[in-house]
Amino acid sequence: MSRNIAVKASAKAAPARAATKVAGKAGKTAAAALPPNAAPKRAVAERVASNGLTESALRKAPASEYMNPAQLTFFREMLVENQKELIENAGVTSEHLREHEVEPDPTDQATMEEEYALELRARDRERKLLKKIEQSLRRIDDGSYGWCEETGEQIGIPRLLARPTATLTIEAQSRRELKQKLYGD
Q1: Residue ranges, the chain, pLDDT below 70
Q2: Which residues of 103-137 are buried (b: 16+ CB within 10 A; e: fewer)?
């Protein structure tokens, strides 16, 4: 009788074990579908201008509405926000550099100086970006923002969203980079 009870108990447990195995395999295949170094995608808040224009609405706008006042306002606010962030970063860096302490260990001192050099190099790049942002804001004011400096064609909303300081279409930029590569600056 005890053998019969044990068989019935294992028969009841078998479907539960099978379901666990299937779920385990499904979990493994879903995880295996992603590369091992893939980071989970984070939800990014969509940028909304003061006039209510969103990035998705900007992307869906017809070509006939290219660089209308609402779009110019969107890009102006985006550029001004980037400008403020860069200025704040510069202030943080200058505060950080003023707090410089001399380390007794030469290796530690060299490490700190290298970190400061990297930080200064990053801030130098940001300083150059600030100049480009100021030029872009002037281009918005004079009505040439969003138009290629070389060809006069539309730069395109997706490119401007990715690089709001762009002054050339992708094709014109590619030609310029190829010339620089072939002939130097």
Answers
A1: 1-45, 96, 100, 185
A2: eeeeeeeeeeeeeeeeeeeebeebeeebebbeebb
